[in-house]
Specification:
The protein contains five helices and no strands. With about 140 residues, the chain is mostly helical. It has two domains: about 45 residues, no CATH class; about 60 residues, no CATH class. The protein starts with a helix and ends in a 5-residue tail after the last helix.
Length: about 140
């Protein structure tokens, strides 16, 4: 019986040479899965993430929620905000409302203004009115 040593030596070498390709072929989707999770896509494979990656995804989700709240989107979940984040958001909301009122925008809620802010808003409205009247006077044809 002739034993072909070449087959016995070659087979393990080939297997050892191919294992990195097999491992990386299976894990090549992990960076994409992490990106999908960070972007809150349905294709996120959260169960395959490491603890560090899961923490990164949680931070991304929290930042996305803060952004949704700041922008006034319905997908905002205020219950997931920390006390500090909720306070900062309330201040930003108030400042945005004051700015809307001073600019005469429909999104203004005057009931949320302080007395001082209400006076400033009334003054800004008077200023806009004067400016509009002046524009009308300058734009109208003159009589002779």
């Amino acid at each position: 019986m002739k034993v072909n040593l070449r087959k016995f030596i070659l087979a393990p070498v080939v297997c050892l040479g191919l294992w990195p390709a097999l491992v990386f072929a299976q894990s090549s989707g992990l960076p994409q899965k992490l990106a999908d999770c960070n972007d809150a896509r349905n294709t996120c494979g959260g169960s395959r993430l490491t603890q560090a990656q899961s923490s990164e995804v949680a931070r991304a989700n929290q930042q996305r929620n803060i952004s949704y709240c700041r922008d006034g989107f319905e997908s905002c979940d205020r219950s997931k905000l920390s006390d500090r984040e909720a306070t900062a958001l309330a201040v930003a909301d108030h400042q945005r409302n004051v700015s809307s009122c001073e600019s005469g925008l429909a999104s203004c809620d005057q009931s949320r203004l302080t007395r001082s802010e209400a006076r400033d808003v009334a003054h800004a409205a008077d200023q806009r009115n004067v400016a509009n009247c002046e524009d009308t006077i300058h734009d109208s044809p003159r009589r002779q």
